[in-house]
Each structure stands twice: as C-alpha cells, then as structure tokens.
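In this supplementary section we document a worked example of the pipeline. Step one takes a protein sequence of length 303 as its only input; no multiple sequence alignment statistics are reported here. Step two produces a three-dimensional model, which step three serialises into structure tokens for compact storage. The input and output of this example are shown verbatim.
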Amino acid sequence: MNQLLKSSSIKPGLIRLNDRNFNDVISAPRDYAVVVLLTAEAPSMGCQLCRQFAPDYHLVAQSWNKEHPKSGDGLYFTVLDFKDGQRTFQSLGLKTAPNLWVYGPTEGENAGPANPYVFEIQGVPDMPGSISRYIESHLPGIKITIHKPKDYSLIGMLASGLIIIAGSFRYVYPFVKPLIESRTIWAGLSLVAILMFTSGHMFNNIRHTPYVAGNREGGVSYIAPGFQQQYGFETQIVAVLYAFLAFGAISLAIKAPRINDSTKQLISVGTWVTIIWCLFSVLMFIFRMKNRGYPLSIPPMTK
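The serialised model returned by step three reads:
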C-alpha cells in the first residue's frame, strides 16, 4: 500500500484505484484500513453530487496525510472513478454515485469484519467533520484532525481595497484636507459625542428605556423620577439644554470679546448671560423633579 500511495496518488494522501488493483487493495486478510470513494466525476456522467462531495473527501485525505506524510500509518484514502472501474461498479451492483465505504483491518488487535461500513452521504452537515467522525467511530485508534486550507481571497480583497483607498486618497485629499484640519468640525463632533454620553443616550440603549410613560392621573410623564431610570424624551431635553449652555459659554468666551463696538458687546454679553441663566434654571428644575429632596434652586423656574 505504501508503494501504491507513492505511485498512484491523485493528490497528497489520495490513491487512484482501477479495475486491476481494486480487489487487491480491499481483499482480506489485510492489516490496514482503507477508505474507498466510488464516484463518477466526469462531466459526461452528470453527477453533480460527486463533484460537490469530492473536495470534502479530499480535504479529509489530505488532513490525514499532513500528519502522516511518509506512509498511511495503517489508514489509506482511495478513489475509484467510474471511468477507471466500470467492471468493478458492475460487479458490486452499483447504480448510483458517490458511495463512501470504510474497510477496517481484518488482522491485528483492531481486527474487524471484512465487509465495509457504508457512510450515508446525503443530508449530512459539516461533511469533512462528519466523514472524519464516521471513520473514527469504526476504526479504533484513528484520530483525524481536519486542516482546512487558508483562505487568501479575503486577505487579497482587503489588500486590494487598501491599495485602492490609498490611491484614491491621494487625489481626494486636497478636497478633504480643509475638513480634516478644521478645528471647528472636530470641536463640533467632540461636543456632540460629549452631549450624547452626558445626557444618558448610552443608558437608554443599554436599558431599552421607553420614550415616555403614563402617570397615575392618566396623563403622560416626560421626566422619570429618581436617578435609576429616565425616559428617551428626558434625554433629548437634557441634551438640548446642555448644547445651548455649551454654545452660550463658547460665545461668551470667544465671540463676545471679538465685538469691537462696546455697546453691542455689552448687549451680547447680557443676552447670553440671561439665556444661560434661564436654561440653567430649567435644568435645575428638571433636577429637582428627579430629586425632590434637593434644597437649592434658581428662581423663578423652581419653587
């Protein structure tokens, strides 16, 4: 069998059989196990299942050969195609393909029956794993580890995509450079992110809180009492208040000092201070709704 493995291999670890050597390989007595795939892969035979099953069977054979490269170590994988074994198919009475037979050894400590174990091919999930487990269940001492080939197509697609992006960026960069280097845009994005997190947006997504809720009087509650819960509407209101307060603080710190006219500057400062005062009063009002025992307030928005 080792000589046949070297001289008649279709692929690593896979022996091609024909009418002349089939009986020699499977005949008893034998001190080795042999797996035989009886198939008909020629396009003229029209056996689509044969062509679909072959790669899975080849993978199992190559996986065994990878761990036992010099010899089969008592287990050999073979293929008998109809074009090479028509007489054998007729003598076995086979009218369909593919067929997978497992012949165990008839001599030695793991000796078993001379007749093969027949693997049911159709309707089996994870074909390579099912084949290896079937062989292991009927051949004591055999352990097959499936070695799937690496799929380089995804790596190639990613590399091609990166090359295309890098090449395109060279031409697009002059147009996006002002956006990338804009302090205003980055400050705005940072502010939006801060507002989303500080207002409780992540809390709502984790807890799946309702947008609003009904109250005991049959109305609608927009603010949830206590600090262990909140509503979606409440989060949006708090985020809007924080946004206007932040915008007001930025305007007082950056915009107002740049006004040359002292009267307009005074009006601008007074306006923004008033807006901040009112908005902060609303924010404190909401805070006191959630914490009834809070003693401080900013009039006239709270009691």
